[in-house]
């Protein structure tokens, strides 16, 4: 960003003596306002020397005026620049990740003091507290913010651009795996008598995500055709005001990928479960297409993320089931289907994965029956018999 070579003005001090004032533009505030620095010299030659030094310092990014802290730049960039290109909930998600995972380390650091080594160390340290996916999400936000700093002339290069996605051994070998088939059957049996039983069955039967269950409406279920259509996802997020205070808001949108828009067949058992749920709902048995399948027991409207979480925790505790994340029920659904012999192509399509290699990389390594099937097939091919 060019700022010019500055100006020199002749003036007088309070005692009437000649003085030379040096003024150099050294940067711009986020709103475009110029930031100037001024010095006073006794002679014109001294003024020339001061101006040269100020311009040199400015061009080498040694002055702090054109080098705001990451907090000052990031919050402006996310709210006033990036927010124009993404959905409001996405912009709020960027700010949430920034405040929670980036600002504690880099918020008060000036932009030109952030280097690639510091970014790499920060990402590595985060893995001690957060999951791999969360760390990579925060790294993505930091790269975007620093990229914006380059575009706006605060940095010459992005110090985070060369930092690769992090990986963790915890992500490949979990200490607390999803439920096995026995645990899934226990949960299904226990779901019949619990108010939170329907989300349990939807997650285990179809591998539905939490947001897809929260956004499911009765108009998405075709009892005549025995089909369940996944058309949207509901989520809650923290929205931040100009004062930095947060408030909880909710939004509905299409699922994360085009392949997540899918149609699932309803078996006989699930047909009965869903029909009974429609009859027992607040507006049952004459539910409207816009009524939510999983509703708040108090209001009949959409269930909140907080109540959803509490319902799951109560379900686990009441039935003495091993504690897992709700998202792990999706993993349980996929792994148990593969172990039961369901084709991986069918599992991938039912889960709404965009590519079958995603399904293979996430679930196939955890399914022993796939390895056994290969070994047994080779035994028959080579030796004419099974184990």
What does this structure look like?
- With 387 residues, the protein is α+β, with helices and mostly antiparallel strands.
- The protein has 3 domains: 7-59; 70-165, DNA polymerase, domain 1 (Orthogonal Bundle); 181-354, hpI Integrase, Chain A, CATH 1.10.443.
- 46% of the residues lie in helices and 13% in strands.
- Helix 2 (70-80) crosses helix 5 and helix 8 packs across helix 12.
- The chain is elongated and about 100 Å long.
- Mean pLDDT is 86; it is low at 61-65.
DSSP strand content: 5-15%
What is the element string, with H for helices and E for strands?
A: EEEHHHHHHHHHEEEEEHHHHHH
Estimate the mean pLDDT confidence: 86
What is the C-alpha radius of gyration, as a whole number of Å?
30 Å
Biggest beta-sheet profile: 3 strands, antiparallel
Q: What's the CATH topology label of the largest domain?
A: hpI Integrase, Chain A
Question: Gap between N and C termini, in Å?
Answer: 73 Å
User: What is the helical fraction, as a range of percent?
Assistant: 40-55%
The total tally of domains equals: 3
């Amino acid at each position: 960003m060019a700022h010019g070579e500055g100006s020199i003005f002749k003036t007088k001090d309070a005692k009437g003596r000649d003085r030379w004032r040096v003024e150099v533009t050294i940067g711009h505030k986020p709103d475009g306002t110029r930031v100037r620095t001024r010095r006073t010299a006794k002679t014109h030659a001294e003024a020339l020397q001061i101006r040269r030094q100020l311009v040199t310092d400015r061009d080498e990014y040694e002055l702090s005026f054109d080098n705001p802290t990451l907090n000052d730049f990031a919050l402006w960039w996310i709210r006033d620049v990036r927010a124009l290109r993404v959905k409001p909930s996405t912009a709020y998600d960027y700010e949430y990740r920034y405040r929670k995972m980036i600002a504690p380390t880099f918020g008060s650091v000036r932009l030109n003091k952030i280097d690639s080594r510091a970014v790499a160390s920060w990402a590595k340290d985060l893995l001690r507290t957060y999951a791999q996916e969360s760390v990579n999400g925060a790294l993505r936000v930091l790269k975007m913010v620093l990229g914006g700093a380059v575009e706006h002339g605060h940095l010459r290069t992005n110090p985070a651009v060369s930092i690769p996605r992090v990986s963790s051994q915890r992500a490949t070998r979990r200490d607390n795996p999803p439920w096995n088939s026995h645990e899934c059957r226990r949960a299904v049996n226990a779901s019949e008598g619990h108010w939170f039983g329907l989300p349990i069955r939807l997650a285990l039967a179809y591998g539905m995500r939490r947001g897809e269950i929260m956004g499911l409406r009765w108009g998405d279920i075709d009892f005549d055709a025995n089909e369940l259509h996944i058309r949207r996802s509901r989520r809650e997020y923290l929205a931040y005001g100009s004062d930095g205070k947060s408030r909880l808001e909710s939004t509905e949108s299409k699922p994360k990928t085009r392949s997540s828009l899918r149609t699932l067949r309803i078996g006989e058992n699930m047909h009965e479960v869903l029909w009974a749920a429609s009859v027992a709902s607040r507006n049952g048995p004459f539910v409207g297409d816009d009524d939510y399948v999983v509703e708040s027991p108090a209001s009949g409207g959409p269930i909140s993320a907080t109540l959803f979480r509490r319902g799951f925790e109560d379900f686990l505790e009441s039935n003495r089931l091993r504690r897992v994340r709700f998202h792990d029920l999706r993993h349980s659904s996929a792994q148990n289907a593969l172990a039961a012999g369901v084709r991986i192509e069918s599992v991938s399509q039912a889960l709404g994965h965009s590519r079958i290699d995603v399904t293979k990389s996430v679930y196939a390594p955890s399914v022993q029956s796939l390895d056994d099937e290969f070994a047994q097939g080779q035994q028959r091919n080579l030796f004419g018999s099974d184990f």
